[in-house]
From TrEMBL:
The chain crosses the membrane at residues 12-31, 65-89, 101-125, 145-168, 205-227, 251-270, 301-327, 364-386, 398-419, 425-445, 478-498, 542-560. GO terms for biological process: transmembrane transport. It is a multi-pass membrane protein. This is Iron ABC transporter permease. The keyword RNA-binding does not apply. Keywords: Cell inner membrane, Cell membrane, Membrane, Transmembrane, Transmembrane helix, Transport. It holds the Pfam family BPD_transp_1. One of its GO terms (cellular component) is plasma membrane. It is found in: Cell inner membrane; Cell membrane. Belongs to the binding-protein-dependent transport system permease family. PANTHER family: INNER MEMBRANE ABC TRANSPORTER PERMEASE PROTEIN YDCV (PTHR43357:SF4). InterPro entries: MetI-like, MetI-like_sf.
Length: 578
């Protein structure tokens, strides 16, 4: 500890990094949230329950609380049912076409949020293609059939199974196949092995993704906002509505605080259960899992039918969005498709009209800047936190995880309420209403994820490399620049791509903080879903969505696919050189 303090105080670079980080934490993480709390419970300088009284007396606010917990509880069930099923049919059971099924289920990896909600609205909503097509045959159809609680649950169930595919599938691959073989030799059937061995082994990950799913449903904004209608609004849309009026902003702040407290409690429960639980353990040297055949013919056929039906549900929106991007909006409005309706005019409009392309460019610029800034900044912070372990760096690390336990809308609302007046911490500037505040919010929400992965990357670098550089006379800065950074740059590049991906179609932070003259893509897509008057922009939105899917798919390939392909090439080349 003493040596860590000495090295910390001796290095100018470390001191600068620590001071800048502490200023950022105080200015944008602690101060805004403290201001939100004070403004809610101390409106006139004295403690008051006025906001709580307004909440209890507001039917809309109380209904939104009930709807949020109802949605979160429902998703905890539906997402697990669907998510566990698609993991089993792609990674555990021997299902024909499993690779194709996986690709269909993985479509939500390349589009989500406001893009996903808008896509389903344009296909199944009041003015959607399917609704219009059915309406041609049955004029009395309820055009709002895909709205409210049902529509939100369906869309969010399909959208949030990505955690199961990414994390539960990885846990399933670690199960020792010898255990399954031993159970089979003792006479256990396929269903009994699944229920008594496989699922208990996945229990920690199932519990973790269940908590994440519950939190996602609790803080859902885009799906209830686009598809919920007037009868099913959750906490997040109500926060957005109340925040637009100065008279109800304290009510919005209280709802955001309740959302944040629920998040903290659930995460604390998850950590406690994970620490105290005793789970199924596998062998240290596990035999790779072999896919299991379903011996019962009827069950096998049923599983295949359900698997391919889900494949169609997952893949249909992607196929339709790509097709609709080449259609005139009138064809979507009438629900009829002819060869004459196909056109390249939508793409020509997007790329040939600066005002139409502008939201896409704005989102790309914001996402690129935020991704680059947070990765570069956290490279130095992660290095300091990993190298110098003392109370100051430990405190810095904990405080930088604040955005992980607070919803994005709470962070955005706190920034709006804090920086709508001059603040000394930012040189007396007013940030609310400027282009910089959205960039700051994007940086804030990506700090914990970036820090955790970069810290792990530095921890994987052997200390002997740094020792060798020091013995050879290299200084700390030279060692950092020429030895350590090159080793963690691949991880940093992957994090940058993932951050860029997730910010492109952001709506949660943008709706509170965007500049009117620099409207990001998420806002433009949301506006295109509002009513029949915006049907002309429907085809343009489909073009936006296709471009987003291409960019996100390319980023996912660069992060995951390219590395695996290059590993495979190295493995194939090695015997030839040998």
């Amino acid at each position: 500890m003493r040596n860590s303090w000495r090295s910390l105080l001796r290095s100018p670079l470390v001191l600068v990094v620590a001071l800048v980080t502490l200023w950022f934490i105080a200015t944008f993480l602690v101060f805004p949230n403290a201001t939100l709390l004070i403004g809610t419970f101390f409106p006139d300088g004295r403690f008051s329950f006025r906001a709580l009284e307004k909440l209890v007396s507001s039917d809309r606010a109380m209904n939104s609380l009930w709807h949020s917990f109802l949605l979160a509880g429902t998703l905890a069930v539906t997402v697990n049912v669907v998510g566990i099923f698609i993991v089993l049919v792609t990674d555990y059971f021997a299902i024909r076409g499993a690779r194709m099924l996986w690709l269909g289920y993985a479509t939500t990896l390349i589009y989500g949020g406001i893009v996903l909600a808008a896509g389903y609205n344009f296909i199944y909503g009041r003015y959607g293609f399917v609704t219009n097509a059915v309406g041609n045959w049955f004029p009395d159809i309820d055009r709002d059939w895909f709205s409210g609680y049902f529509a939100v649950v369906v869309v969010m169930t399909l959208a949030t199974t990505t955690n199961h595919m990414l994390f539960l599938g990885s846990s399933l691959a670690k199960i020792d196949y010898q255990t399954i073989e031993a159970a089979r030799n003792m006479g256990a059937g396929t269903l009994r092995i699944l229920w008594r061995i496989v699922l208990p082994a996945l229990r920690p990950m199932i519990f973790a993704v269940t908590v994440l799913t519950f939190l996602t449903g609790l803080g859902a904004l885009t799906a209830p906002l686009v598809l919920g209608g007037t009868d099913f609004q959750t906490i997040a849309p109500m926060i957005l509505t109340f925040s637009k009026s100065s008279g109800s902003r304290d009510l919005a702040a209280l709802l955001a605080i309740i959302l944040g407290l629920a998040t903290i409690v659930l995460l604390a429960m998850m950590n406690r259960v994970e620490k105290s639980g005793v789970y199924f353990s596998v062998a240290k040297v596990a035999t790779p899992l072999t896919k299991q055949k379903i011996p019962n013919r009827a069950a096998n056929v049923t599983v295949h039918i359900v698997a391919y039906a889900l494949f169609l549900v997952y893949a249909a929106p992607v196929v339709l969005i790509v097709m609709f991007s080449f259609l005139d909006s009138s064809a979507i409005l009438t629900g009829t498709i002819t060869w004459d309706a196909f056109t390249l005019g939508n793409y020509a409009t997007v790329f040939g009209t600066p005002s139409v392309l502008r939201p896409f460019v704005v989102s790309v610029v914001y996402s690129a800047l935020a991704s680059a800034i947070v990765v570069v900044g956290m490279l130095f912070v992660a290095r300091v936190v990993h190298k110098h372990r003392n109370p100051v760096t430990t405190l810095i690390e904990y405080l930088l995880h604040i955005p992980w336990i607070l919803p994005t809308i709470l962070i955005a609302l706190a920034l709006v309420m804090t920086f709508d007046r001059p603040q000394a911490l930012v040189g007396g500037q007013v940030l609310t209403g400027t282009t910089s505040i959205l960039l700051i919010a994007y940086i804030i929400v990506k700090i914990p994820f970036t820090l955790r992965l970069l810290k792990a990357a530095f921890a994987s670098v052997p200390e002997s490399l740094e020792d060798a550089a020091r013995i050879l006379g290299a200084g700390p800065l030279f060692t950092l620049r020429t030895v350590l950074f090159p080793l963690v740059i691949p991880t940093a590049a992957a994090i940058m791509a993932l951050n860029f991906n997730s910010l492109l179609d952001d709506y949660d932070a943008a709706v509170f903080l965007y500049h009117p003259l620099y409207q990001p893509l998420g806002i433009a897509i949301k506006l295109s879903t509002e009513g029949e008057n915006n049907l002309d922009s429907m085809s343009i939105t489909f073009v936006y969505t296709v471009l987003l899917m291409i960019i996100m798919g390319l980023a996912m390939y660069l992060v995951y696919g390219r590395g695996r392909a290059s590993t495979g090439r190295r493995r194939r080349v090695r015997p030839r050189w040998a």
